[in-house]
Amino acid sequence: xxxxxxxxxxxxxxxxxxxxxxxxxxxxxxxxxxxxxxxxxxxxxxxxxxxxxxxxxxxxxxxxxxxxxxxxxxxxxxxxxxxxxxxxxxxxxxxxxxxxxxxxxxxxxxxxxxxxxxxxxxxxxxxxxxxxxxxxxxxxxxxxxxxxxxxxxxxxxxxxxxxxxxxxxxxxxxxxxxxxxxxxxxxxxxxxxxxxxxxxxxxxxxxxxxxxxxxxxxxxxxxxxxxxxxxxxxxxxxxxxxxxxxxxxxxxxxxxxxxxxxxxxxxxxxxxxxxxxxxxxxxxxxxxxxxxxxxxxxxxxxxxxxxxxxxxxxxxxxxxxxxxxxxxxxxxxxxxxxxxxxxxxxxxxxxxxxxxxxxxxxxxxxxxxxxxxxxxxxxxxxx
Length: 383
What we know:
Layout: H1 2-19, E1 27-28, E2 31-35, E3 49-52, E4 58-67, E5 73-84, E6 90-92, H2 102-105, E7 106-108, E8 112-115, E9 119-128, E10 138-148, E11 152-155, E12 162-164, E13 167-175, E14 183-192, E15 198-206, E16 212-222, E17 227-232, E18 236-238, E19 243-245, E20 248-250, E21 257-268, E22 283-289, E23 293-295, H3 299-332, E24 333-337, H4 344-350, H5 355-361, E25 375-379
Parallel strand pairs: 3-13
Antiparallel strand pairs: 1-2, 2-4, 4-9, 5-6, 5-8, 5-10, 7-9, 10-13, 11-12, 14-15, 15-19, 15-20, 16-17, 16-18, 16-21, 21-22, 21-23, 24-25
């Protein structure tokens, strides 16, 4: 059974890789690639190509194809356009899709190479931006995809689904001009999970024309505004004119109660800063707070809260009874002089009231002996 489960999991992973346009890691399995000439001053160029090119100009570069396997590999390298995934993440179009943007600007010296085991080879390429007014100012994205022949299979069933893997390297090209950097938070959704936790899902919209490396922080706040937990992760890109969403799993607070989720999105607003460069950043932050949501307390916290509530209820009930008693005494009781034959028991019987109440109202102490002539507050015999 365990082996069958592992086989099923492997099949699902392969199927996802074949039908999804998502970009996989730059090194998939034993064959992959990296930029051949990264810019030492920009760490992002270690994993993606970043250029600023004017219309009509050309840039030359190379992609390093790596074979880490112990077998000879035939590798296909292609340039394609990009596409947004469902969650707003960067993804690559399929090779069969028409090329209308960056995929058509890239010209590789070759599309197929054969690599010996544990070897690499650089494929030169050029990027030529059309000299046309139709090329918009701002960022344009594409991909260089890498796929070994051994990573492409025949149709797996009668439906003809191809089981294959490919890796890709993002190509980000900025056309200079009026660069706009602007980000807004459009919504903050909070949902509970079956295990008692909560998922906070903020959505951000990049209103600008270049990617923004965005830092998201989620603070869970109580009704009085105090922060009980903070969740954040590293920078993640939000593509131009696109929405991006994140999911943050929030642990259930010990005491439970009503809370809000305050989301803060921060990014570098410097329009002169290249993608991946944070030198002298002009950090801008935008915030959005969710509506109130109720969180049930933990088991122990709930028991403690019930116990405290019970004690408070007892205290309030006792205080109310004392208040009502004092009010009744003030309205219906009168001062009476104790006679020679009166005792606290006889007075209680004649006034139809408990002797303990007479003692409590008049603050009598044990053994509750009262001297003749003592003045006591007693209820009217009519009441």
